[in-house]
Design brief:
The complex is a heterodimer.
Chain A lengths: L2 H51 L14 H4 L11 E5 L2 E6 L2 E4 L2 E5 L5 E4 L4 E4 L4 E5 L5 E6 L15 E2 L2 H12 L5 H10 L4 H34 L1
Antiparallel strand pairs in A: 1-2, 1-9, 2-3, 3-4, 5-6, 6-7, 7-8
Helix pairs in contact in A: 1-4, 1-5
Chain B lengths: L1 H12 L7 E2 L3 H8 L8 E4 L2 H11 L7 E7 L2 E9 L4 E9 L2 E10 L10 H4 L24 H22 L7
Antiparallel strand pairs in B: 1-6, 2-3, 3-4, 4-5, 5-6
Helix pairs in contact in B: 3-5
The chains are: A alpha+beta, B alpha+beta.
Chain lengths: 230, 175
């Protein structure tokens, strides 16, 4: 091989080596900055994911969010009931999708549910045909489905009356605290939906950033390994 | 081509069901359990002992103070509700001499797991009795994708057998 050829070859190898070093530095730089930006999202996704994985044991689907600013993204309007059914020294009200005895939530009561008095207590009949019979104390006497014939509601029509002022206020607040479970809230936070469509897009971008991190990390690891082997 | 059709059909069969499926109303089940002439329903009030054992069987306190049942001689019929994943499953149990004779899913409200209403699943309960530790005397094969519904059916079967035992052999109270 002539001296010229050797020089050209050497030059080529130096340029190639410089190019590889530049590529590696760029990769490190990108990996570092994407990592810093994505770290907050990693923390958020990991912690909400961990909580959601244990939603049942933490009873997150039975506990409700009550803090006003956490509920703000949902734009919920408080249900302000002003009429209730007086029975056995208590007020029975259907509000916010629940049946209440005074300010105590008893059971979910979907739209279209009917309340009536019976010889034994208060009957809640759901549109599906499922029914619950409550004792005057609010305890569940019996539950059933598709068996209205087995239960004889009182023939007297339900008389609704205006709720006492303090109870109406308490119910208005209480109904707000019975709409969004912690499980629902964490799911929406995890998916970015709390900030609407933009939030979901931000989470998409974070997910793509993590994919890029994983790939760049693998490439860096592979390069490093090759260097060590040389 | 045949395998493609099989895959498509299987996928369609495993699509989630959205509304409550009523296979049989509780009245129809009770009527058929007693050949069209059911006796009057009797309420069983859950005292402290019954509540405690029921809570142990179900894994949670029972949801009502009393449960209705129908009895004629050695035969009893029970209609019970238990939550599978999120929604209650209504099931009927006919018991004769402490042995399960007939087990039916009456109303299914979940979006998945409806396969438990099929006879090849419910037939497994026939002939089972209650063991001394309130378990079932035989093994029940599960269904993939319906684990929670299968578990709910087993809990209800155990509870029905336990309550049947109680009503036919009530504990004797002291003087």
């Amino acid at each position: 091989m002539s001296a010229t050829h050797r020089l050209v070859g050497h030059d080529f190898m130096r340029k190639r080596s410089r190019s590889a070093t530049h590529y590696l530095r760029s990769l490190y730089s990108w990996h570092r900055w994407i990592g810093v930006l994505a770290s907050l999202f990693v923390l958020l996704l990991a912690s909400t994911g961990l909580a959601l994985n244990h939603a049942e044991s933490l009873h997150l689907n039975q506990r409700y969010v009550c803090t006003a600013w956490l509920l703000r993204p949902y734009g919920l309007l408080a249900d302000s009931p002003n009429l209730g059914m007086p029975f056995a020294q208590a007020w029975w009200t259907r509000a916010g999708g629940w049946l209440w005895r005074d300010a105590q939530a008893l059971t979910p009561a979907p739209n279209g549910s009917l309340l009536s008095r019976t010889a034994e207590g208060v009957l809640l009949l759901e549109p599906s045909g499922d029914w619950t019979l409550f004792a005057p104390s609010g305890e569940v006497l019996e539950r059933g489905s598709h068996t209205p014939a087995m239960l004889q509601p009182a023939n007297s029509p339900v008389e609704l009356a205006p709720l006492p002022g303090h109870l109406a206020v308490a119910l208005s607040r209480a109904t707000r605290c019975r709409q969004i479970t912690w499980e629902r809230w964490l799911l929406d936070l995890h998916a970015g939906r709390l900030l609407g469509l933009q939030g979901a897009r931000v989470m998409d971008a974070a997910a793509i950033a993590m994919i890029v991190l994983a790939i760049s990390g693998l490439l860096l690891w592979r390069r490093q390994r090759r260097r060590q082997q040389r | 081509m045949r395998s493609l059709i099989t895959i498509i059909l299987t996928s369609l069969l495993s699509l989630p069901v959205s509304a409550a499926q009523v296979y049989q109303t509780p009245e129809q089940f009770v009527s058929s359990a007693f050949q069209g002439k059911p006796p009057a329903a009797t309420p069983l009030w859950l005292n402290a002992d019954l509540k405690a054992t029921a809570a142990r069987i179900l894994g949670h306190p029972p949801q009502a103070l009393r449960i209705k049942y129908w009895r004629q001689g050695l035969q009893t019929a029970w209609v019970l509700d238990e939550i599978g994943r999120d929604e209650p499953i209504t099931a009927g149990f006919r018991i004769l001499g402490g042995q399960l004779q007939d087990t039916q899913v009456l109303i299914f409200r979940e979006s998945r797991g409806w396969e438990i209403h099929m006879p090849n699943f419910t037939r497994q309960f026939a002939g089972l009795t209650l063991t001394p530790n309130s378990g079932l005397s035989g093994h029940i094969d599960g269904i993939t994708g319906a684990t929670l519904s299968v578990n709910a059916m087993q809990r209800m079967a155990r509870l029905a057998l336990y309550l049947d035992q109680h009503v036919r052999n009530p504990p004797v109270s002291g003087p």
